[in-house]
């Protein structure tokens, strides 16, 4: 090949390389066995490299030769044929099992619940099942289940390929089921198989569903589905559910009632109207509407009839069940819920599947609840609250609900819980309900955020226990630029305090101070810290009004927040489960103690400040001066919400945290209501009943010798660095037992809270019930007290 030909070959991108000369051809160098090199050797090497690059390199060339489109398509088709072959083999190998309903019922066993010491708390799980012929279920009620679960039921072949493939893939990846099964698949799982989340079970489910769809009519499949599903309240099947929720046979159900039962299947316990939270009621109402709208869309319900169905038909209250009386029902419900949470997280199953895997499945569940502390808490609520309420004498007394949770801050264990007067008299647990404002018990969170963020005042001074703020009522809150933010909260009884330290503001629960502090810190930072400490802030806005504790919270959540403070900033997520065993399987229970979420110094400083609330503030008489106190060191905070709808005391000793909440709830409608006049008091304050319950319980179960080990140099025990000027008023108007080192003496005493007005003393109770020298905590709304008291209305 000549040089011209070689050049043309290179120009063609190396597709036609110059041939190598034979070994017998003499070279121009005289080397008999070498290849002829044209030009200098380095140039030849470069051209060789260029030719290899033009071909994509040796490695890339091999990859291209290996992964040609023909080979890729061929491999894909091969896998498809292999999969089809495997499925055909599986289809031939798997038969529809014999009737398994009796076996499934026989497998259902009572769950056994135990106290932490191993003694039996309750045995729960009487199976309530009754099969009913589909012909006895109204046609439109039948359609509610199809509309809720599987609109294509009458047209599909029994399986949802996409949903099943997703379920198998999620199981292989350890994510578990994500829903998407047809009614046929759910029936097969309930009737023939089990709730376990394995690939083999899912594949069997798919094959059996295909065969069942061919062998049975759609009506028979639907009948099997609605007769084997779990509806909550221990009810299996539509007949048992109809009786449990509406006290009637299934044949008498209305379409609206049927839609509710169909909606229940997604999350039976969460959607049970009488046990559901506000969120649960909203969710089940949305699903109820979804079911009815789907029925209209499919032509199963006339639009005119749908327009008349505007309100979900509320079911009746559950019937009492052996083993759930008193506080047992509340303890069982929380234990079940936390176990379901673990199964959902570990297996990736849905809430409905988790409930089916827990209820009546023969679990042995040991709780962290201490038998003696549980009894002591129940006794304290009775002694300090329920025995003093008289609904015959005062109508408002019937509307007072109490909830409490007690937690070990070092282990996160829930040692005692009070959910209400009796599970069968009040199904909603007051210990876990998150729908009432925590009010001023939120103020320590604001201070914790200020300390954690090393925040400063508008004048550039670091925020700490001795920082001075203006405590004037209705003072306009201003931002960093000095501009008003449109928020001017009122202090309790519109009380003006003038310049006060943060310690004094916490002691007296001064709204105006913490509203400004929240803006100084930055409300986003405040809400972030609240979330880290354990509050549910996911859907809450970071606005100044939140400084008044206006979001919802439960005693369980607040116990976790304060336990984290008591635990020097290490996150505490209260847990009621000690262990859960099922046959030979044992569920792993996560450690309630998590990571450090705020610094130990920030947490300990808040603790130090909160000792001042007890020794020198709104909880002084009920807690600090309580005759049952044996020297225990206590930190805590009172709270009274807007319109006196809730009142709180959440506090702790070095070894135990307890949150007590009182909630105004209409005895008939269950709507939030005011507690003015309850117990014979003008207003129910956090320093009253809640603090008294707390003290009665805590001072009987805590170590009087335990001491806080705090990493802080500021707080209630430290003399303020700010030196107040002499008071302009006689000091005789100040409470004589109030340490002057904690009160700025330059405050005009006319603006300091004097002794409580005698009009707020109970008219029928001894004066010891409400101390005359105890400053009360404020309502956290922007309103003054109602001029019309419930007592005057009666």
From TrEMBL:
<feature type="transmembrane region" description="Helical">
    <location>
        <begin position="72"/>
        <end position="94"/>
    </location>
</feature>
<dbReference type="InterPro" id="IPR001460">
    <property type="entry name" value="PCN-bd_Tpept"/>
</dbReference>
<dbReference type="InterPro" id="IPR001264">
    <property type="entry name" value="Glyco_trans_51"/>
</dbReference>
<dbReference type="Pfam" id="PF00905">
    <property type="entry name" value="Transpeptidase"/>
</dbReference>
<feature type="region of interest" description="Disordered">
    <location>
        <begin position="618"/>
        <end position="646"/>
    </location>
</feature>
<feature type="compositionally biased region" description="Basic and acidic residues">
    <location>
        <begin position="739"/>
        <end position="754"/>
    </location>
</feature>
<feature type="compositionally biased region" description="Acidic residues">
    <location>
        <begin position="762"/>
        <end position="780"/>
    </location>
</feature>
<feature type="compositionally biased region" description="Basic residues">
    <location>
        <begin position="9"/>
        <end position="19"/>
    </location>
</feature>
<feature type="compositionally biased region" description="Polar residues">
    <location>
        <begin position="25"/>
        <end position="39"/>
    </location>
</feature>
<dbReference type="InterPro" id="IPR050396">
    <property type="entry name" value="Glycosyltr_51/Transpeptidase"/>
</dbReference>
<protein>
    <submittedName>
        <fullName>Transglycosylase domain-containing protein</fullName>
    </submittedName>
</protein>
<feature type="region of interest" description="Disordered">
    <location>
        <begin position="306"/>
        <end position="325"/>
    </location>
</feature>
<keyword id="KW-0812">Transmembrane</keyword>
<feature type="compositionally biased region" description="Polar residues">
    <location>
        <begin position="619"/>
        <end position="629"/>
    </location>
</feature>
<feature type="compositionally biased region" description="Low complexity">
    <location>
        <begin position="720"/>
        <end position="729"/>
    </location>
</feature>
<keyword id="KW-0808">Transferase</keyword>
<feature type="region of interest" description="Disordered">
    <location>
        <begin position="708"/>
        <end position="794"/>
    </location>
</feature>
<feature type="domain" description="Penicillin-binding protein transpeptidase">
    <location>
        <begin position="403"/>
        <end position="655"/>
    </location>
</feature>
<keyword id="KW-1133">Transmembrane helix</keyword>
<feature type="region of interest" description="Disordered">
    <location>
        <begin position="1"/>
        <end position="56"/>
    </location>
</feature>
<keyword id="KW-0472">Membrane</keyword>
<dbReference type="Pfam" id="PF00912">
    <property type="entry name" value="Transgly"/>
</dbReference>
<feature type="domain" description="Glycosyl transferase family 51">
    <location>
        <begin position="123"/>
        <end position="295"/>
    </location>
</feature>
């Amino acid at each position: 090949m000549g040089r011209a030909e070689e050049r043309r070959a290179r120009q063609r991108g190396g597709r036609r390389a110059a041939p190598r000369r034979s070994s017998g051809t003499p070279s121009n160098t005289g080397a008999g066995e070498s290849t002829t090199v044209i030009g200098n050797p380095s140039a030849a090497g470069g051209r060789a490299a260029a030719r290899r690059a033009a071909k994509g390199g040796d490695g890339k060339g091999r990859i291209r030769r290996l992964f040609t489109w023909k080979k890729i398509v061929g491999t894909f088709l091969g896998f498809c044929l292999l999969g089809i072959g495997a499925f055909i083999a599986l289809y031939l190998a798997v038969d529809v099992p014999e009737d398994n309903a009796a076996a499934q019922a026989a497998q259902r066993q009572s769950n056994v619940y135990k106290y932490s010491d191993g003694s039996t708390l309750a045995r729960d799980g009487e199976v309530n099942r009754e099969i009913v012929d589909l012909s006895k279920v109204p046609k439109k009620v039948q359609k509610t289940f199809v509309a809720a679960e599987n609109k294509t039921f009458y047209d599909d072949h029994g399986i949802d390929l996409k949903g099943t493939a997703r379920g198998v893939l999620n199981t292989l990846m350890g994510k578990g089921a994500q829903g998407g099964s047809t009614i046929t698949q759910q029936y097969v799982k309930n009737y023939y198989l089990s709730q376990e989340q394995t690939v083999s079970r899912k594949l069997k489910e798919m094959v059996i569903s295909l065969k069942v769809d061919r062998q049975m009519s759609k009506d028979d499949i639907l009948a099997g589905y609605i007769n084997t599903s779990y509806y909550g309240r221990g009810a299996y099947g539509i007949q048992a559910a109809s009786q449990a929720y509406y006290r009637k046979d299934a044949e008498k159900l209305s379409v609206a009632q049927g839609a509710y039962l169909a909606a229940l299947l997604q999350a039976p316990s969460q959607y049970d109207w009488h046990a559901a939270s506000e969120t649960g009621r909203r969710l089940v109402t949305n699903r109820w509407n979804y079911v009815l709208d789907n029925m209209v869309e499919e032509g199963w319900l006339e639009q005119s009839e749908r327009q008349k169905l505007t309100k979900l038909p509320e079911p009746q209250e559950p019937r009492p069940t052996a083993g759930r009386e008193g506080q047992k029902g509340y303890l069982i419900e929380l234990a079940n819920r936390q176990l379901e949470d673990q199964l959902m997280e570990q297996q990736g199953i849905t809430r409905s599947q988790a409930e089916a895997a827990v209820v009546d499945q023969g679990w042995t569940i040991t709780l962290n609840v201490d038998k003696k502390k549980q009894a002591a808490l129940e006794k304290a609520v009775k002694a300090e609250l329920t025995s003093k309420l008289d609904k015959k004498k005062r109508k408002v007394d019937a509307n007072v609900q109490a909830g409490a949770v007690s937690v070990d801050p070092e282990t996160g264990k829930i040692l005692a819980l009070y959910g209400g007067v009796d599970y069968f008299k009040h199904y909603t647990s007051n210990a876990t309900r998150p729908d009432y404002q925590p009010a001023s018990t939120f103020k320590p969170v604001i201070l914790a955020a200020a300390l954690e963020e090393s925040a400063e005042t508008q004048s550039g001074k670091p925020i700490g226990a001795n920082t001075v703020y203006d405590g004037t009522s209705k003072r306009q809150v201003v931002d960093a630029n000095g501009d008003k933010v449109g928020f001017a909260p009122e202090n309790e009884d519109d009380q003006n305090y003038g310049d006060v330290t943060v310690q004094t503001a916490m002691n007296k629960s001064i709204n105006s101070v913490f509203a400004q502090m929240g803006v100084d810190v930055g409300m986003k930072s405040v809400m972030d810290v609240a979330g880290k400490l354990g509050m549910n802030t996911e859907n809450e806005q970071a606005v100044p009004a939140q400084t008044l504790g206006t979001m919802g919270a439960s005693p369980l959540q607040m116990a976790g927040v304060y336990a984290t403070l008591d635990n020097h900033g290490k996150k505490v997520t209260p847990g009621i489960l000690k262990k859960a065993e099922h046959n030979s399987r044992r569920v792993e229970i996560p450690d309630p103690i998590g990571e450090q979420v705020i610094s130990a110094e920030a947490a300990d400083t808040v603790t130090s400040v909160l000792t001042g609330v007890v020794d020198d503030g709104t909880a002084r008489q009920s807690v600090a001066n309580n005759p049952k106190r044996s020297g225990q060191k206590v930190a805590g905070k009172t709270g009274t919400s807007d319109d006196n709808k809730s009142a709180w005391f959440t506090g702790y000793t070095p070894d135990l945290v307890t949150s007590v909440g009182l909630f105004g709830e209409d005895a008939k409608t269950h709507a939030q209501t005011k507690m003015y006049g309850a117990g014979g008091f003008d207003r129910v304050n956090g320093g009253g009943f809640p603090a008294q319950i707390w003290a009665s319980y805590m001072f009987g179960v805590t170590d009087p010798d335990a001491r806080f080990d705090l990493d802080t140099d500021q707080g209630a025990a430290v003399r303020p660095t700010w030196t107040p000027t002499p008071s302009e008023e006689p000091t005789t108007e100040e409470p004589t037992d109030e340490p002057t080192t904690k009160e700025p003496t330059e405050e005009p005493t006319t603006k300091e809270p004097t002794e409580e007005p005698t009009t707020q003393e109970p008219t029928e109770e001894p004066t010891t019930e409400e101390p005359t020298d105890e400053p009360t905590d404020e309502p956290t709304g922007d309103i003054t007290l109602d001029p019309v008291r419930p007592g005057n209305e009666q």
